[in-house]
Amino acid sequence: MRASVAGCRMSVGTLLNGLLVSVVAALLWKYSKLSEHAALLEEELHMTRQSQELSQAHIDYHVALQALQEHGTRMVCTGKMHTDRICRFDYLCYSSEAEEFVFFHSNFSVMLPNLGSRRFQPALLDLSSVEDHNTQYFNFLELPAAALKFMPKPVFVPDVTLILNRFNPDNLMHVFHDDLLPAFYTMNQYSDLDDEARLVFMEGWGEGPHFDLYRLLSSKQPLLKEQLRNFGKLMCFTKSYIGLSKMTTWYQYGFVQPQGPKANILVSGNEIRQFARALMDKMNITRGEEAEKDGGSAEDEKVKEKKDDYIVVFSRSTTRLILNEAELIMALAQEFQMRVVTVSLEEQSFPSIVQAISGASMLVSMHGAQLITSLFLPRGAAVVELFPFAVNPEQYTPYKTLASLPGMDLHYISWRNTKEENTITHPDRPWEQGGIAHLEKEEQERILANKDVPRHLCCRNPEWLFRIYQDTLVDVPSFLEVLKEGTKTKPSLKKAKPSTTVYPGRVREPQCQTSVQTTNEAKLTVSWQIPWNLKYLKVKEVKYEVWIQEQGENTYMPYILPQQNYTFSENIKPFTTYLVWVRCIFNKNLLGPFADVLMCKT
């Protein structure tokens, strides 16, 4: 009996012991889970704080992470080729460890266009506005969204971002032509790329000397590639656009063929002037001509224009110097009876230079990147570009092309030093500043003997560099003669008015009538009404182009006519079907679209 009682007591004790161990284990497990949950919450809080460091925009980290894990990355692009493609991404990520963008796949991912391996032939898109340059290609790696479990926790960028490459941020021409203008109009294409969007530069350069100009495009500080490392090993952009519009570029730099204007220029001076005005607004600069008030007599206006007119001369302090700059300035002031203002990128702020140029009647400068500032000149101003000895102005025309764009309304003049004794060369400088001492003696002698740099490809041609970095003693009499010949008269003090190119619409109600005169003779009468927009326009000259083609033939007969109807009899055969097209022409070269083709049977 005692033994059974003792056994019972042991069973109860063992049971209680087991229960106690279970309770403690459960408590420890719960504590462990709570600690793990607390750690996850702490980590999410930390990642949220990192995201907040990037932007003031609020982001729910848990929601963003869940969206990435469940929906993966989404991509929709415009453009048919890598050279004209811009892509919008949701939740595209960047691994600073691998220095690669990452597309996470899930059942809900979108990839349009879905190119497969063609995405690597040669790339998905160009990251810069310089077309098809193999250092500017963009692509991404692919991973399943499930891989996120084994990767560092992502930091989310809540801002809408524009991700691009700056092509050469140390050079002012490249800054404007390749970066600022394309970025400005790319941002204009997409409504959410507004003043609150953030620019991300992935080319790997430092800020460079002109970084303040990039800051003008957005109220938020741009991010450099090297800065992305500071925010974690994996960054995910909640909404981003990648690539730049190339529609605003007008010049190619000679990577495939010698440099020159692009074959198909799509931008006009009107768009460039709108861009210039937007930048001036950001810099709090008011163009002189815009500040003038209407009113006053014509005589008062002439006096005011005479008083306000001046010439700007760009002064360089290190390379490509004008050795007799003071003499040149005095000659300009005397010849044109205007004051002359000098500006210098090395010594003045960029806004102060733009302020001076925006009211000038003439801008004079040696060939160089600073001449891109001519886009701030008022309409009717002259751009005068000086070239060192042996450099042909017709082979290097980025600023001539800019000045000549329809709607820029600038007058371009070039002067070239033709006297070798008026040049100072620098053969002992580093090669990138025109030095040739590193070359074989025979090659040095060939370069020194040559009086004209031959056409060449970009970018390290030693003869081109040697000649373009010469200093020049400007022959003032020949320089003034070129100016007189270029302008014919002194520059007009009256600023040109904005001009707009308007094309005709389709001619309306085209119709044809036919008649057979004899078995060998017939007549075809074609008539139409004027384009609808013509009645609201003042056009100097209006003509009409008519094409007539016999059905089944490959050739057509073109006619230019001043009236809205005409009877054709020459080469018109009886019992024959003719196809007829009609369109309107303004001022000899503004061609409207053809109206629908007429089928006329004689």
From TrEMBL:
Top-rank lineage group of the source organism: Eukaryota
Keywords: Endoplasmic reticulum, Glycoprotein, Glycosyltransferase, Membrane, Signal-anchor, Transferase, Transmembrane, Transmembrane helix
Reaction(s) catalysed (UniProt annotation): 3-O-(alpha-D-mannosyl)-L-threonyl-[protein] + UDP-N-acetyl-alpha-D-glucosamine = 3-O-(N-acetyl-beta-D-glucosaminyl-(1->4)-alpha-D-mannosyl)-L-threonyl-[protein] + UDP + H(+)
Listed EC numbers: 2.4.1.312
Annotated GO MF terms: protein O-acetylglucosaminyltransferase activity
UniProt pathway: Protein modification; protein glycosylation
GO cellular component, one term: endoplasmic reticulum membrane
Protein name: Protein O-linked-mannose beta-1,4-N-acetylglucosaminyltransferase 2
Protein species of origin: Channa argus
